[in-house]
Design a protein that fits this description.
This protein is an all-alpha fold and about 240 residues long. Helices cover about 70% and strands about 0% of the residues. It has helices at about 5-15, 20-30, 35-40, 45, 55-65, 70-75, 80-90, 95, 100-115, 120-135, 145-155, 160-165, 175-190, 195-210, 215-235. Helix 9 packs antiparallel against helix 10 and helix 9 runs parallel beside helix 11 (about 145-155). The termini are far apart. The relative contact order is 0.07.
Length: about 240
């Protein structure tokens, strides 16, 4: 592998046109292996040499490698790391991060876990809301980040913030679990807002969505559905 300095220079020099980004992506995929991960602890200072918007693809690769190390998170997880990730999720280029969606989702998941560990869910709301919009190819697409975003809103009791993700018409679903969690957390947010008909609608979707076997999310959604039905309809 080239030196980290050389890799950062490539990122700085090849983040312009589509052709340049394609070449950079090829270089990053070649570098993304055991050798780069062996140097993950040294990556944090190099991120300061990159602009999260202009150099989003390269920034994402380095950030994801850094965030994949438990030792790195133990050393930096609660401080500068969260600030760096929050800034990246808010300001990154959607076109660039969609070139490596799995890495973007990994970074979002680590960010959510770190915020949860610190018991500060409100810190996750704005960055994850931005992340949803960045990774979506259309407003009809359900992403794994939707559920994490709604969970942050729910835990922080910022129910109105969750409406930005619940008011879209969702038709494009990749993973069934994402839909179950979206409907369950969404139903809970509507309960928090005392919008019981909307809550019933989403909880009903969680209960009746096709599933290969009974899952814990559907069971919990059914329990909430029964309780809300009693509140709303007296039955």
């Amino acid at each position: 592998m080239e030196s980290l300095e050389a890799l950062v220079a490539h990122i700085q020099g090849l983040s312009g046109s589509g052709e340049e980004l394609a070449h950079l992506h090829s270089l990053l995929k070649q570098a993304d292996g055991e050798s780069l991960r062996a140097h993950s602890a040294a990556l944090l200072p190099f991120l300061s040499e990159l602009d999260p918007n202009t150099h989003s693809l390269g920034f994402l690769y380095l950030l994801e490698v850094f965030a994949s190390s438990t030792a790195n998170l133990r050393a930096h997880g609660g401080g500068d790391f969260l600030v760096i990730v929050a800034d990246f999720l808010t300001s990154c280029s959607a076109d660039q991060i969609r070139m490596a969606p799995d890495k973007f989702l990994n970074v979002c998941k680590v960010f959510k876990n770190e915020v949860m560990q610190l018991n500060t869910p409100i810190r996750g709301i704005a960055p994850l809301r931005a992340a949803v919009r960045k990774i979506q190819t259309s407003s009809e697409q359900l992403t794994p980040i939707h559920a994490d975003y709604l969970l942050m809103c729910l835990l922080a009791k910022q129910y109105k913030a969750g409406l930005s993700a619940l008011e879209d018409d969702i038709f494009d679903v990749d993973q069934p679990k994402d839909l179950f969690l979206y409907c369950y957390y969404g139903g809970m947010i509507y309960i928090g807002l005392k919008k019981f008909p909307k809550a019933l609608e989403l909880l009903h979707n969680a209960v009746t969505a096709p599933m290969s076997s009974l899952n814990a999310i559907a069971v919990e959604a059914y329990r909430k559905y029964v309780l809300v039905s009693l509140i709303q309809n007296g039955q």
